[in-house]
Amino acid sequence: MESYCKQDYIDILKKELVPAMGCTEPIALAYAAAKAREVLGEAPKNVEAFVSPNILKNGMGVGIPGTGMIGLEIAGAIGIVGGDASKELNVLADITYEDVKQSQQMVAEQKIKIGVKSDINPIYIEVNAASGESNSKVIIEEKHNNIVYIEKNGEVILNNRLQKDTKEESKEVSVENKAESSSKASINQDTGKSLKFSVESIYDFSVNMPLEELSFVYDLTITNSLISNEGMEKNYGHRIGRIVQKNIDNGLLADDLMSYVIKKSAAGADARMGGCMLPAMSNSGSGNQGITLSVPVIACAEKLGSDKEKLTRALVLASLISIYIKSNMKRLSALCGAMTAGASASCGMTYLLGGNLEQVKFSVQNMIGNLTGIVCDGAKPNCAMKVATGVSAAVISSLAAMDNVSCTSLEGIVDDNVDKSIANLGKIAAYGMADLDKMMLEIMVDKKSN
């Protein structure tokens, strides 16, 4: 195994595990809107926002916390009226009933308009706020909490925008030669620093790093249990978690590991997509992925009676595998995160079940061989159904791995080298599904206009 920098792994975990209240795409718009008002120094009379097609796709049908409404217009309006930009993706933590009423009126009076910009970074949000002679502009790019441009009355206050050239695409995803040249993957971060990742190095780090240096991962990800519990206690979205529990109670489903993992994970997505006011610990910019990779591992540990150290190391393993897989593709793509996060959860569960490095690799191979191709057609209540599908597949993948069963290079895009399989998955998500992403958005927009 090649050497890796342990501090780099700690740094990337701290950078990518971020609390976010509500779906990250509309919440990022709320954050940009709150910042635009802050820069303007007063309540704007009119707001015009532009977003990438991917932001539009993920913001059209999802509940906005505390508002009882869905969509980007209300997300931008509540950010303007009651958002606290200092809290970034928890921007709506302190909104009031009066804030919600004012934001709803703002939407009703069409004082906020949403447009789309094409041929830009998949994560792009621009908010222009105006009041009389004063105006402000705020742009988020590349990451959901990454404000790169601030302007007031024509004066540029901040400009860290990406250059519009061929380097823009490669800054976030560079997978062309990974499968052929190396079993390692690299993440190009804001500093331009390259991180060397492989399943083997992640496993080594997760299993052998001193526990006290990993405890922050436990503290961060365990909070996803709270939003899962909320989804089990109240009716959010399609109530998938509660429906599973109902059918356990009436004897149609067993109260086993599979049902427990599905109900707890789906309930978290139910609550988050339904506008719950609790934050989720996101991973790689997605709260649903944070839930999908962590809640199954926590649920599995509860079923097995695993101790805190074992759970902590399993959560570190799952979190880093997710970051690794996502580093091979764009943060927003046509590939559903339930698949990538499910693969990560499968690794964590395999470790809890006593699996070794090879069996962790088998878990990834099995998930890639099974669920590659499940599409992301926007954030919405039925994401809970996809989460249920992803985590049920994760359980099967883990149990098969524990029986030393793995998909092989004779099967589809799977390679005998797990790191090459991950690179192959990245190619499909980053390039092969690009036209599919456009087609889905066209269908969704056309459906909304009819």
Structural class given helices, strands, pairing?
Answer: alpha+beta
CATH class of the largest domain: Mainly Alpha
Mean pLDDT: 90
Number of helices: 19
Nearest-angstrom radius of gyration? 21 Å
Biased composition (Basic and acidic residues): 167-181
Organism: Acetoanaerobium sticklandii (strain ATCC 12662 / DSM 519 / JCM 1433 / CCUG 9281 / NCIMB 10654 / HF) (Clostridium sticklandii)
GO molecular function, one term: L-cysteine desulfhydrase activity
Region (Disordered): 167-187
Description of the structure:
This protein has helices at 6-16, 24-40, 53-59, 72-82, 97-108, 167-172, 178-181, 199-208, 215-221, 224-233, 240-249, 257-273, 287-304, 308-327, 337-352, 357-371, 383-402, 418-432, 434-449, and strands spanning 17-21, 46-51, 63-64, 69-70, 112-116, 124-131, 134-141, 147-152, 155-159, 185-188, 194-197, 279-283. It has 450 residues and is an alpha+beta fold. It folds into two domains: 24-159, 60s Ribosomal Protein L30, Chain: A (2-Layer Sandwich); 177-449, 2-methylcitrate dehydratase PrpD (Orthogonal Bundle). Strand 3 and strand 4 (69-70) form a beta hairpin. The radius of gyration is 21 Å and the shape is globular. The termini are far apart. Mean pLDDT is 90; it is low at 165-192. It comes from Acetoanaerobium sticklandii (strain ATCC 12662 / DSM 519 / JCM 1433 / CCUG 9281 / NCIMB 10654 / HF) (Clostridium sticklandii). GO terms for molecular function: L-cysteine desulfhydrase activity. Residues 167-187 are annotated as: Disordered.
